[in-house]
Amino acid sequence: MNGPHNSSVNPAEITRPNWPVLILAFVAVVLDGYDTIALGLSVPALSDDWGVDPAHFTPALSLTSLGVALGYIAVGRLTARFGCRNVVLAAVVVFTLGSLLTAWAGGIIELSVLRFVTGFGLGAVMPAAVAQATALNPARFRQQIAVFVTTGISLGALIAGILGAALIRWFDWPSVFIVGAIASAALLPMLWIWLPDERAVTGVQHAPATAKHDASVARLFDPQVRGRTILLWAFSFLIFSVYYIFSSWLPTLLTSYGFSTGLAPLGSAALGVGSIIGAGVLMVAALRFRMTSVLAGTSVVAIAFLVLSTYLGADKAMLLIVFGGVGLGLQAGMIGQAAVAVTLYPQRTAATGVGWTSSMGRLGSVVGPIVGGALIGMGLATSTIVLIACIPVAVAAVIVVALGRTARPRPTKVAGGRPAPVGVS
């Protein structure tokens, strides 16, 4: 079942992980994560190169997130019509070309347009990759698979932060986008050869009318899930908002602590390291606790590290460690919301559920950089901005606790007869 031409199998008969699909889906999302923060970590160097204030890049940062949000919204219908494999391929082509052209952008307007188009491709990749990976792997592992694939965003951010600092120092900011485009272009033939069409593999084909109905956002408001959909969307919006304040502006904020423009991208790397650790914590903790309880805990962790950062002054090493803790708490929430969504809705609605929930997050990621830019433009101290960011995280923690209390446990059995965590139970 590793290739598009194999005979079909009943989804219920899939009992072992399909590693080629998992790895390809994961790598596609890694490149998504890399490209998503590439502009944010390039802003200090771009500001110096173009001679404009960093706050002037707010439209480009926000339009990137807007394009991603629209990609998330569209992905359900796109996968229903063309299949997850074809959507992943097309989306990677879009953000490969968009990233390459960004390297030759000559002004704010041109940069903003290119990032908007690139963002649409970035937005379509993650939900389609998660939906395909869960469709072609054992159903009892859907939540863990969703966490694993979505973790690619964290690894991509980590790679961008570490590699971006060196690239900017040695070759200037365009190299960040050129390297991302080369990596994406190298992935394309692998996706074409080894990423199967999930409809051909499982033999599950639906009439266009049925597929359109399953992909409709109205399915997310069926009576049994309506309240949880609203709470999940609110949680996603708030967590994404705060994370993207820091992923977009942390390199700029760190310059106020004495970081050079060459070292400031290490702040993004610190967020990425924390994000990877947070994803690991999420996967392990979800085996024993409700996902909503885990997300409430990681939100509290984010608040604790945010408050701690205000007491560190100009201690560069400790600041990077603490913002790694912030990344742990916030990115766990961003990954966890996709894991909740993928198990909250039927498999045929999974891409729509993940896409729309993530789009609410991306709406927050549009608002976040705008708010961050406004706060920086007001001349507020970095410590004040950090404390303000604690407020929406605290609200998100309350919301996810409420989400857990509205959940109806629906345990399923795994090998050995143990109940597996399902959805938000």
From TrEMBL:
Pfam families (UniProt xref): MFS_1
InterPro entries associated with the record: MFS (IPR011701), MFS_dom (IPR020846), MFS_trans_sf (IPR036259)
Keywords: Membrane, Transmembrane, Transmembrane helix
Residues forming coiled coils: none
Record's bilayer topology term: Multi-pass membrane protein
Compartments in which it is found: Cell membrane
Gene3D superfamilies: MFS general substrate transporter like domains
Record field: transmembrane: 21-43, 55-75, 87-107, 113-133, 145-170, 176-195, 229-246, 266-287, 294-312, 318-342, 363-380, 386-404
Location of the Major facilitator superfamily (MFS) profile domain: 21-408
Record keyword Transmembrane present: yes
Superkingdom in the source lineage: Bacteria
PANTHER family attached to this UniProt entry: CARBOXYLIC ACID TRANSPORTER PROTEIN HOMOLOG
Identification of the protein by name: MFS transporter
Protein's organism: Gordonia prachuapensis
